[in-house]
Design a protein that fits this description.
The structure is a homodimer of 271-residue chains. With 271 residues, chain A is of the alpha/beta class. Chain A is built from eleven helices and seven strands. The longest helix of chain A has 20 residues, at 251-270. In chain A, 45% of the residues are buried. Chains A and B meet through helix 1, helix 7, helix 8, helix 9 and helix 10 of A and helix 1, strand 5, helix 7, helix 8 and helix 9 of B.
């Protein structure tokens, strides 16, 4: 997944740090600068920029965070520091608390996909919302969790459910991002798009072009004695046609395949 | 999200390292031990255990990987090492290549959610499948990508789409996991199924079977003088490989294609 295509600027999807229409990511007493940076990177991968830190252990700014952010500057440049969780969430109307443990608290528990859908509804109503993440070793205390409306729990391997901080930020940011585009209609579009191949400098071959190639190959095969016995010929031809129809050839590829058949059978034809 | 509840053993969902019914995660020439370990941790978070390494830069075992895996022992203990990508994928029938860049190759591009639904279908049929991840700095080369059936691309902020290796492994493992339990996943599976190939009496060809055919065809083409001038040979071979990987051949079809090449070139060889 390496390779940021930094000259490929999005037309209108540039995240706006001032827009409240995205979740705030609130890291409560984060310990490792590396984790703060990696969380910033994960956020910006998903076009999020509102990062809030509550009493980071090693102060702020933090060179290790900057290194780990790998260029997610729009996030680091707008980080806000708070002395308490309640100040950090003061402007929010909807708050989620991440947790890998079940709490003795009567709160809804939602997975990231559901939280993302809920937050999209909040966003459309102009609400403000955010997600609390606890310190790496201990997670959120009950005093922090009680400030939230809902618990956010990632459904993971029950025998090994401890996520790295930045991994947790990534999964939730990713679900938020996808929730913006996967309405039923869009999902169908996506599966439609899946069938569209990127054809660099070429074009999907027409049925006639493919057919022309297939007929040519068939003629060569008949001449070479491959499509024998004749009783089996129709099924063998059908199988070959299936292979090449399924490949969804480009015009360039059809020309290449003509060349292949010409070359392979060339000496026989020249005899 | 801290706090693994290790005494909380899952009743029946314990991942089975011997089960082929999960995607293989194939890291090609990974550089940092930390990233291998973090990828192993992300896999095990999602109950995956089939980790394959192709020429890891710092050898194997790697103490830094062990530290970063944070206890994902069932993954590290069963790691397999390979000298080449084609060996690492030899037993697989369906292969995805992760990529943040658009390639000049004619291959389907799918997001993780669609890939996960497709792999669930493979799993139900008893197929084997896996995902290729490139080295941290450079990503997969075209020579590696050409071995895959489809490109797997995470839809991210276009201005900042470079994911850390372990983050990429996590997102894909996470989608795989959720696709096994959500009704949303099931709905996508159903629409995928309509596009799945009926393989009456035959079986999807393994990567090794397809590779064997391609090498044979290439040898014939070189002998016939088709792959000339030599400077153009790699790109022509790559294009041919893409065509046949995309067709998702069955074992029976591979045998048919062997016959086609044998017939077409037969007279030349008999001379």
């Amino acid at each position: 997944m390496a390779g940021t295509d930094s000259q490929h600027q999005p037309p209108d999807s540039q995240p706006d740090p001032l827009s409240p229409q995205q979740p705030a990511i609130i890291l409560v007493e984060p310990q490792m600068g590396e984790n703060i940076g990696a969380a910033a990177r994960a956020m910006y991968n998903c076009s999020l920029t509102d990062l809030r830190l509550v009493r980071p252990r090693d102060g702020w700014p933090n060179p290790r965070a900057e290194a780990a952010a790998s260029g997610a500057d729009p996030v680091l440049e707008t980080v806000r520091l708070f002395d308490s969780v309640s100040e950090a969430v003061g402007d929010l109307t909807r708050i989620y608390a991440t947790s890998a443990r079940s709490r003795d608290m009567v709160k809804p528990v939602v997975p990231p996909r559901v939280a993302a859908a809920e937050m999209r509804i909040c966003a459309r109503r102009g609400e403000t919302f955010g997600i609390l993440f606890g310190p790496e070793r201990t997670g959120l205390t009950n005093d922090h969790v009680v400030l939230a409306d809902s618990l956010l729990e990632v459904p993971l391997n029950p025998a090994f459910s401890s996520l790295n901080l930045a991994q947790a930020v990534l999964l939730i940011s990713y679900e938020w991002m996808l929730a913006g585009e996967t309405s039923e209609g869009t999902r169908q579009e996506t599966s439609e798009q899946r069938r569209e191949l990127p054809v660099a400098g070429s074009w999907p071959a027409t049925a006639a072009e493919v057919d022309n190639f297939l007929q040519r190959m068939e003629a060569e095969l008949i001449e070479a004695g491959f499509l024998y016995p004749e009783v089996k010929r129709p099924i063998m031809l059908r199988n070959l046609r299936n292979i090449f129809r399924r490949a969804r050839l480009t015009d360039q590829e059809v020309r290449t395949l003509h060349g292949v058949v010409r070359s392979l059978s060339g000496s026989r034809n020249r005899r």
